[in-house]
Amino acid sequence: MKQPGNRSASRGQNGKMLDNFFRPESVALIGASSTPGKVGFDILKNITDAGFRGKIYPVNPKSDELFGLKCYHSANDIEGKIDLAVVMIPPKFIPDALGQCASKGCDSAIIISAGFKEVGPEGARLEREMRTVAKKAGVRLLGPNCLGVIDTDMHLNATFAAGMPAAGNIGFVSQSGALCTAILDWSFANSIGFSRFVSLGNKADIDEVDMIEALGEDERTSVIVGYIEGVSRGREFMETLLRVTKKKPVILIKSGTSEAGARAASSHTGSMAGSDIAFDTAFRQCGVMRARTVEEIFDCAVAFSFQPLPAGNKLAILTNAGGPGIMATDAMDDTRAEMARFKPETIEKLKSFLPSAAAFYNPVDIIGDAHADRYQSTIMALLEDSDVDGIVVLLTPQGMTQIEETAKAISYASLIHKKPILTSFMGEEMVGSGIDLLGKNRIPNYSFPERAVGAFGRMVEYESWRGRPLKKNIEVEYPRDETEKMIKRFTAHGRGAVSGERALRVLKAAGIKTPDYKIAEDMKKAKEFALEFGYPIVLKVASPDISHKSDVGGVKVGIGDEDSLERAYNEIMVNCRRMVPSAVLHGVEVHQMITGGKEMVLGMSRDPSFGPLIMFGLGGIYVEIMKDVSFRIAPLTEDDIDGLIHEIKSVRLLTGARGEKPKDIDGIKETIRIVSQLTIDYENMIEMDINPLIALDRGQGVYAVDARFNFQISE
Amino acid sequence: MKQPGNRSASRGQNGKMLDNFFRPESVALIGASSTPGKVGFDILKNITDAGFRGKIYPVNPKSDELFGLKCYHSANDIEGKIDLAVVMIPPKFIPDALGQCASKGCDSAIIISAGFKEVGPEGARLEREMRTVAKKAGVRLLGPNCLGVIDTDMHLNATFAAGMPAAGNIGFVSQSGALCTAILDWSFANSIGFSRFVSLGNKADIDEVDMIEALGEDERTSVIVGYIEGVSRGREFMETLLRVTKKKPVILIKSGTSEAGARAASSHTGSMAGSDIAFDTAFRQCGVMRARTVEEIFDCAVAFSFQPLPAGNKLAILTNAGGPGIMATDAMDDTRAEMARFKPETIEKLKSFLPSAAAFYNPVDIIGDAHADRYQSTIMALLEDSDVDGIVVLLTPQGMTQIEETAKAISYASLIHKKPILTSFMGEEMVGSGIDLLGKNRIPNYSFPERAVGAFGRMVEYESWRGRPLKKNIEVEYPRDETEKMIKRFTAHGRGAVSGERALRVLKAAGIKTPDYKIAEDMKKAKEFALEFGYPIVLKVASPDISHKSDVGGVKVGIGDEDSLERAYNEIMVNCRRMVPSAVLHGVEVHQMITGGKEMVLGMSRDPSFGPLIMFGLGGIYVEIMKDVSFRIAPLTEDDIDGLIHEIKSVRLLTGARGEKPKDIDGIKETIRIVSQLTIDYENMIEMDINPLIALDRGQGVYAVDARFNFQISE
After folding, report:
1. Is B464 in CB contact (< 8 Å) with chain A?
2. Last residue in a domain, options B593, B612, B634
3. Alpha-carbon distance A633 to A680, whole Å?
4. B542 occurs within a structural domain
5. How far is residue B157 from each of residues B45, B48, B86, B173, B217, measured CA to CA in Å?
6. Same domain, residue pair A352 and A444
7. What does the pLDDT read at residue A323?
């Protein structure tokens, strides 16, 4: 929240976010025009045609009257207060115009004009300049290079789109203006209504976070859909969406993948955690449903807009033909919906009026000669079953089929019961009139059964998200003074990479178990420590003068008993004396060796918009070849930690598959908690990788055996 | 091919498959009626309305004239030859009517009537009876309980569907009559034409294999689409499709999954190889493209119907708006299409006429103010680039957009160049006239960019399949006498299960390596054999009187040296003498122990329709938890074997990932070859499982270490 001053300035008199963009009492049209084909003409026409009831002030230095309205030569000439300015004059004139508007009390401006960032460096300069002027004047900007804004409740069409959509409860926000025009055109033909419609343009000031917040507050908006290409304020995006999605469903397309976001935390994380994974993870973590296609956006929008949410995931399928019924059933596999199992009394009821050739179990096939009344009785019987949470009704146009009457019967049932009904009237020409009727009665219809089932699946998904209580972010205490000092020391002289022993020391200081070691000045002590740790152990020469211990024969691993320890100790001493005769030898380091556990990888790569993207998986082949990893963005909740662990397929190797003992899941969780906290506390930590992290049996602990960090060093 | 007599009987005079169903010179309508609402009325009306030019013989005992045509009281009264009978009388009268038709030279009958298998056991009896009569009379049957047949070239509409589709090159075959009506209705509104349209009904005689063969032979059909729920002749299906798909694309929906097909070969195979996997595998093996939804069927049908195949997979995307261009690019990830990289001269050309704000690289954004001429010049420039194999053209309806003119420009370009062009004019009302024009000019249009890209991907997929030479099935020689004798002996007394040592002996006889063993009558011999095999080895007591050797302490595994061998030998002797004092001991079996390789699983589960479904994967967690397995249906080609091995993700563990030595891939292949042959040769082998199959390093061999078979025993 970097612009608190601006933000409060953008609240209208009733305190709602950006309210003057949607519910202004007066609009100044800077650059209104009487010349058809000009944007200034289209917008003036749209705003008057749509029946906006507030004051309209066209501004054009060359006109005295436009569309029967008094036209002002400049904003300065306007007598009253300006709530909203819609600006479509060449970029270089805009700063001045904004100043004039501000002097008339204007705090909100839609910059329709193009010619800014999108045309190159000079445009970007103009955009920055405009933003500075606006900020100083206390004016929030939408755009530039955008289509504008629609609020159907206020009859406000401040866009140059061709036509005004019907009023409805869908809020739409898009980073692509052209997509807006396509979606409006589609809405005209499909009985779809919008509450608010927003084109973001270049996002010089207002972005998707602001607008989704505003749509979230708007009472007439009950579902939010949108198209975004990128998010610059990732944290705010997540925080806002976490709140909004608990009130209303949000379905977004995020297109493209930013290469810049694909920086690598480790060789593993790097190859897999591109920023698209960050988006996917962020969306899931804050309850945004991600649509992969525009079709899916539409399918969801209509379902959420028209129908109540299901109380559970049990779906009944009703059809007048076997094939489509089977296809609908098949489609359920890809969703969180499940086939309802009817109560015995429901089946008895169905048997009492359906022909014997019908199928009484889900999917219910009322066969090809079904009239509307058979559809209606069946729908009512199914809706009365408390084990049914919703219905998908399929219709194929057969000889006896009553298309319009069936549409009416479905609409009637939908009025009586508070369970969602979705339909697929298959075909186009013959079923067209039925589909129109369904649309008018707010029954979502889909050309194909699979899409109806998919939309129900999304409703189930949302209902389950909405009902889940929000968990709070984990906070872990650890001796930060100590890690602070270490990291400062290790990253002195501009070295961002911290690895091996040093990285492990940081983790240990933060509370993560690492293999223990002690310095033994002689053989006797070494044996003592070895017994203390338990064999096998590792011996390393202890000398301030030898940095690459392995290179001089100063390391021996896998020492299994006292005899081997004696041999190893002596060999190390001989080797080091011979190879580095000048070195002072303080004896050996006796290192605990972690054996017999499961190797895991725990990494972090800082996403430029969302922050620390944590990755978890089993080590080696599971991460490298099977790509069996899970992601979350820190800070984490306990649910996130459970998700990280249980979303990997190979989790059964940790919980005790194939006769193995369960591993120390509590220890894994604690390690993840600490890592989450570290990545939050150290914003300059851009990469982190614990590999391997070894989980021993339950209660035996989890050890970081090797690790590395990468810090961004400012100097 | 179980009905060679019938099959030849169904060829028309020009020798084409089932030709009289599509190109009859005379049609008898058994049960024609003058009563609207009756099927006999609808079909008579359809056949006359469509303008069928052959002879039409209505048959109805109560009429002398129908629709101005002479009506016959029975088929016996018809003077001329009957090529095709369309039958819509009650089931019990049909056998007699078929006999009469046959006596008039009729060899083909469409049974429209319902009331057969679909209504229960009595109907099933009637269906069997009808089939017997028809077979005896040499009449091929389509149906019963079907919608009928359309051949647009012959103006033949022998269905009771509402309306006749436009002529075109799409052949459609469906097991669901209701889906036919929906698809016809959809075709009316979308400029889609069909060559032939077939409803299969109950498939008493003619099934999808026959009909796909017939559509394959039909010159006017250039793409085959269909809906099936099951296949009874799996082998013939695969053989036929393998031929047909090399001539024209075939896209099928297979809905539902048969539980009966999900029998388990092993605990692994069983849980994973349901018959849906068999379908998926069969489709891929014979080049059928599987559609998951009706929408996908449509999307593919239009693309293949209208446009030429691409020569390669390089796609150019052209758009007047950034967002949709990005979405189209994103969608390519799920296909085999790739983004084209333009030649430098193409980019120069684009720069010469596009505005500077355009994007000249793929996706090409000609920006929002693009008129039709800019679309046209860009399309032409892209089509002239030999590194471009096809184009997806996107259009959003913006202020300056010339919708119809752009549709014309695209159509013009499509006439000049032989590369596929697909479009997505986004929206509905405003873009409607453009979409109509595109349809008329055979440019497939999709509501959304993703679907256009998906359809291009299918074209690439098909082109690549069509170009791949057909490999021949592998045949392997092995001493079949020997395996024959063994299997007979092991499965005596009605025991179908053969496991452990016995199963390994069968595999060894067939040429698969198994751990070797020799019988040593004394300690000295045992040591000699152990040296021969190399340590470690396994010792087992050799006694005809001891069957469960482990239970009496008669087995010792992992014997690493001569000392251990001595101890083990003595212990075995002591144990056995004590536990089974009466047993005659012949010394010990010295078994080779296979260590250090990769464990794999090779299984087979015989699918009821398609035959031996071979499964391959790495053992243990890879198959059980990661489900990382591959499938093929035997008999296999060398390509299939490569596929089995290289389709598993964990193949890198076999080819030498992470610094390991590559395993004996040639040995794995040879083992799969032999297994394929065994499953073909032993049709009563319903399950087989080699687990583990161990692959040593390259050149060191592949060993079956444990195995089991399950044979169906007839007595």
Report:
1. no
2. B593
3. 10
4. yes
5. 9, 8, 11, 15, 20
6. yes
7. 86
For residue B699, the distance in angstroms to the closest alpha carbon of chain A comes to: 24
Interchain CB contact of A431 with B (< 8 Å): yes
Please indicate whether, in this complex, the C-beta atoms of A322 and B624 are within 8 angstroms of each other.
Answer: no
Say which residues have a Cβ less than 8 Å from residue A604's Cβ, sequence separation at least 6.
A265, A269, A612, A613, A614, A615, A634, A675, A679, A685, A687, A688, A689
Token pair listed for A377: 């009785």
Comparing alpha-carbon positions, the chain B residue that sits nearest to A254 is B327
The residues with which A225 forms a beta bridge, in sequence order, are A172, A251
Q: Please tell me whether the overall predicted TM-score, pTM, comes out greater than 0.90 for this model.
A: no
What pLDDT, in 10s, does the model give residues A600-648? 999 999 998 899 999 999 987 788 778 899 999 999 999 999 999 999 9
**pLDDT attached to residue B7:** 42
Both ends of chain B: CA-CA distance in Å? 27
- The pLDDT, as a whole number, for residue B439 is 93
Kindly state whether residue A276 falls inside one of the protein's structural domains: no
Q: Which residues of chain A have pLDDT under 70?
A: 1-15, 257-274, 658, 715
pLDDT tens digit string along B306-363? 999 999 999 999 999 888 888 888 888 889 999 999 999 999 999 999 998 888 989 9
DSSP 8-state symbol, A502: H
Give the up-direction half-sphere exposure of residue B566: CA atoms within 13 A in the CB hemisphere: 3
Please provide the DSSP assignment of A643-667 as one string. HHHHTSGGGHHHHT-TTPPPB-HHH
Cβ-defined contact of A429 to B229 (cutoff 8 Å):
no
Whole-number pLDDT of residue B272: 39
Q: Are B436 and B530 part of one and the same domain?
A: no
Predicted confidence at residue B658, as pLDDT, reads 67
Q: Cβ of B256 and A330 within 8 Å?
A: yes
DSSP B442: T
Whole-angstrom Cα distance, residue A131 to residue A127?
Answer: 6
Q: Do B653 and A621 touch (CB under 8 A)?
A: yes
Is the previous residue joined to A608 through a cis bond, with omega within 30 degrees of 0? no
B211-225 pLDDT per residue, tens: 999 999 999 999 999
Q: What is the DSSP letter of B271?
A: H
Query: How close does chain B come to A518, measured CA to CA in Å?
Result: 33
Give the residue among B674, B623, B306 at the shortest CA–CA distance from B477.
Answer: B674
Bridge partners, residue A687, by sequence: A605, A710
Instruction: Write out residues 328-347 of B within 8 Å (CB-CB) of A.
Output: 329-331
Domain span at A524 = 516-593
Dist. CA A340–CA A346, nearest whole Å: 12
Query: Complex ipTM, two decimals?
Result: 0.85
Please identify, among A221, A239, A271, the residue that sits at the C-terminal boundary of a domain. A221
